[in-house]
Structure formats: structure tokens, C-alpha cells
Batch of 4 targets.
Target 1
Amino acid sequence: MMNAVYPGRMQDKDFTRKVEEASGQDISTCYQCGNCTAGCPAGFVYDRQVNQIMRAVQLGLKEQALGSASLWYCLSCSICTMRCPNNIDVAAVMEVLRHMAREEGHVTVPRMDKFWLSFMDTVRAFGRVYEIGTMSLYMLRSLRMNTDLDLAMPALAHRKLPFVPHLSKEGASAVGRIISRYRARQEKQEKRQ
């Protein structure tokens, strides 16, 4: 169905429902006050501001929402959520959109996604982030072998980068349970669709 507000753009009503279901938010209550955008510390690099992404979701403009580079620059700091007068967890919506974009092959900033994957791999393995492991995986995935090497020596001198990861069996098993619950929830949602 063509969209009357944005001529030439296809409207996907099912998309809005899926985002609301996955995020647990009623996006229709967003009245475009702009508080989320005004408080966003990363907004200066966004191609679409937070309120524009929320509006795209409201209107079912899936390609516009999932194709935005802003999803990958979002810091997940939740300032947008704190500023929302309608108590919409905007950060949760952004996270859901990022996952949907990844699943549908709309990764517009591959380096950010490669960093996220590297971070998650070390958290899964050790129950918490292992900085040298995260950066090593990122460098391999992105083929950026000299990324931030100038920062390594001062960080090592101040003991901010341990060579050996902090092993936490409890942490690793807790993270494993969280990931299992998340995957089970995803599978359940996919079956409903």
C-alpha cells in the first residue's frame, strides 16, 4: 500500500505491529515532541533523527527505518527513554530495529556490527567483556589491524587492558541463560508470525 504522507514509499502495517510486539512499546503514543532527538548525544552523526525513526515505524515505513545508519550509531544510553513524556522505551525500540535490520541484511554500518559481534563473543565466552579479546576479534573481522594501537600502550601501562581475561563461571553461566532466554523468545515470536 502506498503511503499518503510519503508518496512513493510502501507502507508495511505488519512491521509496526512486529516492532511493538518485540519492544513491548505502544509506538502510536509517540506524538513527535522531539524530546528524544533533543537529548540524543549521538544525534549529530545520525542520518535520521530518533523521532524520524519513530515516525517511520508508526507509518510502517520498514525500509526507511531499517535502512537508517542511525540504528548502528545509537549508544543505547537511554536518554531518549528518560526524556519521553509518554514513557516509551525508545532505546528498546532502537535495539529491536537494530536486531531486525541485522536479521534482514540491512547492516548499513558494518564496522559497528562487527564490533558488536566481537563484544558479544567475548561476553558469551567469559561472562564479561575481555577488552583485548574484543579488539582482536574486531580487528580480524574488520581487517583493520592497526585500529587504536596508539591507545594500547598507555592503557597497558595503566593496567586497563589485562592480558588474561577475568574468568567468571557464574558470569558466563548467567550470560548463557540470558542468551538462551532471548533466543527462545525470538523463536517463539517467529513461530507466531
Target 2
Amino acid sequence: MNNTLKKVILDTDIGDDIDDSFALLLLLESHKFDCLGVTTVFRNSIKRAKMAKCLIASLGYDIKVYPGIDNPIKQDINHLISKEIKEKEVVDEDGKYLFPQWDEKMKDYEIESTNAVDFIIESIHKYPNEVTLIPIGPMTNIALAIKKDPTIIPLIKEIRFMGAGLDFNFVEWNIFCDPEAASIVINSGVKKIVGITLNTTSLTTLTDEEVNDLKNNKSNAIKLVYEAMMKWFSHYQFANPVMHDPLTVASLIDEDIVTLKKVKLDVDLSRDGYTFINDNKSSEIYVSTSLNKEKFFSLFKEILDI
């Protein structure tokens, strides 16, 4: 692939909220990245990997997918998932959570035997100071890679994650699902860490008209994502999707889409991962504080041809 393209690894919990699928589409169809691989995380990583591989194949790409870690570092899954949600869930033949977007046609797609954590470590050593990690789910894989091999810390070009929020009185989902992992990553000392926060991602809801445009799109990949989105809507009674994860990818395509600010962000492990400004810290990361909404949606629709 073109050596001028940004080397990236997308780390995703694809299969729950539909925005992970849109983020993967945006990353591949932008032709701005050399995607070294896709890694999956949280609960049923193997089936998430097969779903990602199915979507990748529908676009005609041959990119390897590596299943990662199912469980948070310390959090109890039963603490994370409410009783109301648990009552709606089903499990697969291995007793693992079967997300509503799963389709049996995905089961035959081949994924890699190498674990996501090892793949991340190997890739960073193979391409020192070149790889940007893009976690758009819980950061368990990234955190455990850093713990397993701390020598990768100065070799990571950037970590750009979707998560956290400023001045909110609640915990953002990706951080909540594994606050210990988020704390490890945010406090790792990686030279550049960027958090695309709820302050900006929450402004990216698709309208009814835009959802209808997806329904009528002729692309096989868009059709696949639309079908998955309808399953997700039906299962959880959600309405219009919010493009949290695509904004994270888009911010790497066009740096002017979000405004970044350096802050001393920290994770309160005693409050389920509540993020806050900690003036006692020495290290800083960047966080998104405002969004050029028109520019984002223009780029999103142009790349995906919707």
C-alpha cells in the first residue's frame, strides 16, 4: 500500500451500537489509511471479529481481523450491564453474549488465531513511531498490550480514542466498560493521546432523512450496515444513531473537523471511570471540545456516497 498513508489499527467493539460499523466503512473507503489490521474487544470478541471481517469483505478488502479480550481488567460484567438489558440478551453456543447485529452468514468468515494484544505489540515493533491506534470501544486490548510490553510506549505514534467527556455528571460508556484500561492508556505516557469526547460526538446524530438515504443506498456494504442497524434498533428500541466512532476516524482525515485542547485528564476508578481534570498530574492529553458539524457530515456523506 502507499507508504504515505497513515498506518493505523482500528480496535472496535463492533456489533453493539451501529457507529462502529460506520467507522470501519469510513476508515476503509476514505483511502487515507494503511490499515494494518482490525482488532476486536469486549465480551464476544470472536464473533465481533467475524462481523468485522464480513463487512471488510463486502467492500472487497483483504484486511486481517484479530479477536482480543472479552472481559474488562477488573470490572464485573454483571455490574456493567443493567438487569433490563440482560433480560433482552441471548448467548451463543459458547455461552457468550450474542449481540443483536450477529447474522449466521458471518460465522464462516476467517479471522486470525493471533490475539489482538500480541498483534498490537508486534505491529508497533515492526513500524516504530508510525502506528496510530484507534480504540473506539473499551481500551482493554491497548492497555494489556502496554502492560505486557511497556517498551512499545515510546514507539506508538498516537492513540486516538472515542471516549470520556468534560463537565458531565455521568460516565461515558467506553470508559465505564473498563475504567482500569482507560486509566492505564490515558496515563501511559504515549507521546500523543487524543480523546474524541462526548462533548463533540453527541452532536452527530443522523436525521430521519439521512437514515432513509441509507435504506435506499445501492452499496452492498451500506445495505449490510443498514440491516444490522435495523436489528439493533429493534432489539434495544433506539431511534436515530449517533456517529460517535465515525467522528473519531474523521478527525484523523481532516484535523479541522474538531477543535482540540490539552488537558490533564484523569480517570476516577472509585467512581466507575468518571473522567475529570486533575491539576496534580504532570502529563496532558488532547481532547475534543468543539465540532465543525457541517464539515463532518459533508466528509461523512461524500466518502460513503450517501
Target 3
Amino acid sequence: MKSLSLLFSIALFTASCAVNASMLDRTGTVRYVPIEGGFYGIVCDDGKNYDPANLPTEFQQDNLKVRFTGKILKDRVGFHMWGEIIEIEDISRSE
């Protein structure tokens, strides 16, 4: 019984580490990408592209500087094939 409890604790800890590993806290620029019917993505200051699944309408402005937190959706597949798909947790304008 003790070993089962220990195995469960290890599995839970490992799963929580995997979730934290995919969290983002970045700054970048919203860009309109005119492929696949057009969409808004975020080009981060480090050059990585992110395809937000839930970018709020008020932030869908080309060249808008933003700071955002979110998580990478590893289980989601998109047809844009432009960057990693993310779910925005929090976003604000940045200067």
C-alpha cells in the first residue's frame, strides 16, 4: 500500500512539473499573418512565433506591443503551421 501511495505521489509531481514547463511569460508584437485565410499571431522579442487560440478582439491589431502569460497547448493541432499554439492566460499592452 505504501509503494502504491509513493508511486501515485511521484506521478502527480511529474505531471505538475510538465504543466509548469509549458507556461510562458513573454513580450512581443501582435502581427497579422495573411496566410490560411489570415489570422493574428504573436512574434516574441526572442523571435519565436506563437499562434494564440484565444487572442481577445481588442488585441487583434497589427504591430501592437504586448506582454502575455499563457501555456503551450501541446495536445492541439492547427492548420496555420506558423508557430506554437498557445492559450492566453493574461495579456496587456506593452511599451
Target 4
Amino acid sequence: MEPSTLRWITLLSRKTQVYLTGALAPYGLTAAEQPFYMSLYYAEGVTQEELTAMVYADKASTARRVKSLEEKGLLRREKDPADRRRNRLYLTDQAKARFAAVHRDLLELDRRLVEGLPQQDRETLAHALHLMQKNMNQVLEEQRRKEGEGHG
């Protein structure tokens, strides 16, 4: 029996995490930290809550990754001048200096993943994945509504 679409995606995701663990180690990053690091590069100054939403993680996972990046000297927190109870998150100069190499390695992995696929198939795949993402958002929204009804 051929694996389901979900199974293929899960396998690809797990294998990607294994690869990233080794590929990111020279930069002092883990596979789990990578989405937080990348997001902060493009959206510096966000709060921890905003970062959680950006990477679609839970609050505890975000807290662990932020703490780890901070301990490694790759992230710093600054008090929000408009609300001193909040911290804004920024990459350090050390983290920014590594970004080009990390980004290059991630793009190379992306290129290798689609190697051998004709351009038309790549476009079809991108379209299909985008549609699947939209569908998953709808499934999650329905789940949230059902859970909300159960607690009401």
C-alpha cells in the first residue's frame, strides 16, 4: 500500500530535521531553533508572543528556543519603550554575521529537494503545497471552534 500524503510529508519533515541537525551545528544552531532564528532575521523587534504566532509554535517551545538563542549569544531582549512589561527580540551582530551562510545552506537543501523535477512540476508542487496549507488552516480553525464549544 502506498503511503498517504500525510505520511510522505511527515517522513520528509523528519528527514529534514535530521539533516538540519548536522548542517546547522557549525553555526551553533539546532534544527528546532532555525525557524525562530530565520523569522527574527526578517522581523526583528517582535515580541515573544508574535514570534510564537509567526513560527506556529507553542509558547513553551518558543520560550525554550528564545532562551537557548540568548544563552548562545545569538539573541538579545530589549524592553519595549511603549510597554516596559514586554520585551522585544533582536538578533545579535554575531547571529546576523552567520545569516548569509545559514540561508545559503537552507537554499541549497531546497534546491536539492526538487532536483530532477521539471519546472512545471515544481510550480504544480508549490501550488499544491500552498493549497494544502490553506486546507490545514481551515482544519485547525474548525478544531479550535469545536474545542471552544466543548469548554463553553
